[in-house]
Amino acid sequence: MLRLVARRLLKVIPLLLLVTVIAFGLLNLVPGDPAVQIAGEFATEEQIEAIRTELELDRPWLSRYGSWLSDAVRGDLGDSLFSGVSVRSQIWDRLPATVSLIGWSLVLSALIGIPAGTVAGWREGSALDRFLTVGTTIGVAIPVFVTGLVLALVVGIKLGWLPATGYVGITESPWQWARRLILPAFALALTGAAEIARQTRAGVIEVKKQDFVRVARANGLHTRQVLGKHTLKNAMIPVVTVVGLQIGRLFGLSVLVEQIFNIPGLGSRLITAVFENDVPFIQGTVLMLGTVIVLVNAGVDISYGYFNPRVRGS
Amino acid sequence: MSEGRAVGVPLLQVEDLTVEFVTEHGWLPVVDGVSFEIGRQETIGLIGESGCGKSVTAMAILGLIGGPSGRVARGRVLLDGQDLLVLEEPELREVRGRRIAMIFQEPMTSIDPAFTIGKQIIEVLRRHLPLSRAQAKQRAIDLLDRVGIPDPHRRFDDYPHQLSGGMRQRVLIAMALSCEPDLLIADEPTTALDVTVQAQVLELLAGLQEELGMAVLLVTHDLAVVAETCDRTIVMYAGEVVESADVTALFPDPRHPYTAAMLANLPGLHPGEPLRPIPGIVPPRHALPAGCWYSPRCEHRTDACGATHPQLVDLGTRRVRCLRADELDLPGVGR
Ligand SMILES: Nc1ncnc2c1ncn2[C@@H]1O[C@H](COP(=O)(O)OP(=O)(O)OP(=O)(O)O)[C@@H](O)[C@H]1O
Ligand SMILES: [Mg+2]
To answer: Which of A220, A308, A314 sits opposite B98 (nearest CB)?
Structure first.
């Protein structure tokens, strides 16, 4: 197992380097003279010059990348072009809301998706299975902003059961933090839950045909052992992959959900940054998200070692 | 030893067992009115060509036929006089692994790859017996040792993929016999193994049977194994029993042409000669021939064979399903 962890972490290094190249290279995707483009239509010559100096655009590409990287490694992501505040502290301000939102929706989608998929797969072809299959088809098909708006309007505003907007930090009030995240996290979780349910169902159907499941039954094991232990642990291998893929997508979709529920997260700040052409902020955020996704995927690969001992390597 | 044992009642009585599956032709029986008995500590060989219903019979005894596509349409399976087919799942689970255990053909895929073999043996032990974790572990290691796994302390923490097919079948035997069942159903336990390993596993089973005093229902294609290890043989054809008798009576003197044809194929009987597989195939259930189901392939058929489906006739020491059982003099394998 240790060997697997080490092997996988070694593979992380080149991927992270790639992420830094992409994050840094974003600046060069700006067409024409980046300084002119970033400064905007009504910029004066001095403003353009200031941006050129700030971004050190007169230095060659590689040397700028080198110093940007060495700063980034030490946690210095530069300053925002507009507010002048350090990018790191801005991300740090916004990150907790986004991470809470994504964390909650991951937990919710697993809590809904895994049991639903397990029951549907075990009782394949039953009325319950058909009902759940229709449900997951709808769940996958509905765009997240529709779910979000409906939840915010109906449950949040019309029924008034839960607050529909705003965010409270966990350190301020854990109770309010949880309450306010329920609706947005649920909206964000639904697609993921449907996808996890589908994958779990497919996995359970596949695994329950296996010889070892028959052996477990022939040995008189309880259904909770046959299904909950032997079938499920083997069926989880593809599900973990799906969960890993979810995380990248959740970051993307969280932008929408943060807008709908008025959550001061990274997504809403990123939108502003894009409109303002705030290159250092965009670079910093992309770098951070890219790193998170690379690490999550490494974690997913390592977790295969738990579910599937054959990949551990001897 | 076992609860509710009635004096004079055989360990297992299968009566008129009929199992059906859904096919494109509707529900069709795959096992059709099968009856036989297994006495305590007896070894029964269940033979027949591929697809004639041996595995389905074995699964039905353990109540493992179910789901949307299979059902037991008729019959009784009496264990010490208690019909297993009327039991609910929770009661059946007390029988499986505890009173009747089963091992299967495919050791490579029959152990859960996600758990160590030790954990899985302990799971079965503690499912049926009131053992502490430590006691169960000790017993599991003893079992691994007993089934001939070298260095059982270390092997205990192995995952299945670290073991060969023969070793895995030994582990499965350890699991199946962990609670000392009264009957072991072994469905082609050595078919998937190397020839050299086959003999070792069979020897192990024979030793354990002696030691635990259990009965064995051995499903196999290998008549040589039957001759060597079994007390009695049941021959199945197209879902029916066509002949059953003591091995000592059946092998030298088969009465059903199908039995005789199978015996003629016994490996090593005619060294140097090519095997003579029985011409033709087992008829599918939706296209059974008229009269005797074996008649189209039978060397000894008469017109009557194509007209009447023979009954299984009890001749005292054997039962046979052939109109000409009395008149034919079929070659057997001498003893
Ligand atoms: N789950 C099932 N659904 C439909 N048909 C089945 C099912 N299981 C078995 N059968 C059919 O029942 C028949 C008997 O199968 P069974 O497995 O008992 O044969 P067998 O005598 O054990 O053969 P083999 O020697 O190949 O193991 C076969 O024709 C098979 O196709
Ligand atoms: Mg079979």
So the answer is: A220
Q: Which helix (H) or strand (E) holds B13?
A: strand B12-23
Does residue A252 lie in a domain region?
yes
Instruction: Report pLDDT for B7.
Output: 63
Which whole number is the average pLDDT over B316-324? 93
What value does the mean pLDDT take over residues B73-93? Answer: 95
Contact A215 B110 (CB under 8 A): yes
Q: Measured between beta carbons, which residues in chain A are less than 8 angstroms from residue B174?
A: none
Is residue A172 located within the same domain as residue A192? yes
Sheet containing B215-219, strands listed edge to edge, beginning at the edge strand earlier in sequence: B100-103, B183-187, B215-219, B43-47, B232-237, B240-246, B318-320, B313-314
What's the CATH number where A214 sits? 1.10.3720.10
Closest ligand 1 atom number to CA of residue B23: 4
Residues of chain B with Cβ-Cβ distance to A211 below 8 Å are 104, 106, 109-110
Q: Does B155 contact chain A (CB < 8 Å)?
A: no
Question: Using CA atoms, how far apart are residues B191 and B104, in angstroms rounded to an integer?
Answer: 10
* Per-residue confidence (pLDDT) for residue B267, from 0 to 100: 66
Lowest-pLDDT range of A40-44, A133-137, A229-233: A40-44
pLDDT band at A35 (very low <50, low <70, confident <90, very high): confident
Helix (H) or strand (E) holding B243: strand B240-246
State whether A124 and A68 are in the same domain: no
- Rounded to whole angstroms, the Cα distance separating A190 from A196 reads 10
A61 shares a domain with A202: no
Record: fold of B12-230: Rossmann fold (3.40.50)
Whether A48 and A97 have beta carbons less than 8 Å apart is answered as no
Q: What is the pLDDT of residues B41-59, one digit of tens each?
A: 999 999 999 999 999 999 9
Residues A58 and A199 in one domain: no
Record the pTM: 0.86
Which among A125, A215, A234 has the least Cβ separation from residue B104?
Answer: A215
**If you write DSSP's letter for every residue of A184-199 in order, what string do you get?**
HHHHHHHHHHHHHHHH
Q: Is the pLDDT of residue A314 over 60?
A: no
Q: Note whether A153 and A236 are same-domain residues.
A: yes
Share of chain B above pLDDT 70, in %: 95
ipTM of the complex: 0.89
A186 and A56 assigned to the same domain: no
Residue B149 contacts residue B116 (beta carbons within 8 Å): no
From the CA of B48, give the closest atom in ligand 1: 21
Residue-averaged pLDDT of chain A: 89
User: Measured between CB atoms, which of B68, B111, B127 is closest to A221?
Assistant: B127
With cut-offs at 50, 70 and 90, classify the pLDDT of residue B88: very high
Find the ligand nearest to B221 CA.
Answer: 1
For B121, which residue in chain A has the nearest alpha carbon?
A219
Identify whether the C-beta of residue A79 lies closer than 8 Å to the C-beta of residue A91: no
Q: Tell me the domain boundaries of chain B.
A: 12-230, 236-320
Ligand 1 atom 31: the closest Cα is on which residue? B51
Q: Containing domain of residue A313, as a range?
A: 1-81+277-314
Tens of pLDDT, residues A247-291 = 888 988 999 999 999 999 998 888 888 888 888 899 999 999 899
- Same domain? For A175 and A40 the reply is no
Residues A4 and A106 in one domain: no
Task: Identify whether A272 is part of a domain.
Answer: no
**Residue A209: both structure tokens together:** 């045909």
In chain B, which residue's Cα lies nearest the Cα of A126? Answer: B68
